[in-house]
Amino acid sequence: MKKIKYLLTCSAFIFSSLLAVSQNWSLTGNSGTGYTTDFIGTTDSKPIRFRTNNIERMIVDSLGNLGIGLSSPTEKLHVDGKIRFGSTSKVTVDATTDGANTNVSFNNAQYGSAFVNASRFGGTTYSTTDQYIDLSNNGIRIKSYTAYSTEGALDINTASDITTAGWKLLTVKNQNVLKSYIDKDGGAWFNSSVGIGTTSTADTNYRLFVFKGVRTRKVKVDQSTWADYVFQSGYKLRPLQDLEKFIKENNHLPEVPSTKEIEENGLDLGDNQVLLLKKIEELTLYVIEQNNKLMELQKEVATLKKQ
After folding, report:
1. What is the pLDDT of residues 168-227, one digit of tens each?
2. Whole-number Å distance between alpha carbons of 301 and 307
């Protein structure tokens, strides 16, 4: 009887030892594991926590969410800290088809899908079908060599009609101060000067600079003054003798800019129209004055003839 108890005790010890050995993982590697049955983890709803220097660094919760640098991950991969990829690494984001989720979300701003579709990711030589986005140190560069002529490298569009007043498709800010925008109707506003065909936009008195001219069917210039004051009773005309002297000395009318001034400063259309009207009205007064003198002279001639 004692032998039987001894054998049972030995058997139980050996079995428990084998069981303990089978449940331990070696720090130098393991062999003979079965990928369908052997695993490191939990069989209940408890998470797995990883520590270094007795500080928790990573956790896999009961839902399978992996958290790095935090203890309560809310996504499949939740990182609190910086992520760095090697020079040969590539990140691929598959497109969603459910219409509800975003592909790439920044700061939890899930307002739409973000797609990057490029046939070339690096290098300096691009083919005629390349479309790519280059995130450089100075910002975002978007290029396209697509054969389609109806679309550009950057297409800003809305899925439905936007009727909200003041809604903008594109805004440009500097230090959170609005500098320019394109509104929902295609109208544009610029806080600074705009040059078309030229980079000479230093004159702060103007906002639009165009090289090689502007062609249009209609131009309207707002004016706060007009030249009708010439016809008021207190307006004094320059004597014709003085006018003749001025023209001979300066080769242009009084108040009218010279050729040199136009070459240096250009011509203000609004002010020039006021000036031209003033000269026309003055000329009209000169004609009326000469006509009155002529009529007086004709009367005197008629009187002399009678005598």
Report:
1. 989 999 998 999 999 999 999 999 999 999 999 999 888 999 999 999 999 898 888 899
2. 10
Range scoring the smallest mean pLDDT among 21-25, 203-207, 233-237: 21-25
CA pair distance 115, 34, nearest whole angstrom: 40
Label the pairing between strands 131-136 and 208-210.
unpaired
Whether residue 269 contacts residue 221, with contact meaning beta carbons closer than 8 Å, is answered with yes
The pLDDT, as a whole number, for residue 39 is: 86
Q: In what order do the strands lie in the sheet with 48-52?
A: 48-52, 55-60, 66-68, 77-79
239/262 Cα distance (integer angstroms)? 27
pLDDT above 50: residue 302: yes
Residue type for position 217: R
Contact 184, 169 (CB under 8 A): yes
Q: Which helix (H) or strand (E) holds 287?
A: helix 269-306
From the list 156, 207, 164, the residue with the least C-alpha distance to 182 is 156
pLDDT at 108 over 80: no
pTM, two decimals, is 0.51
CB within 8 A of 242, min separation 6: which ones?
Answer: none
CA distance 190 to 198: 17
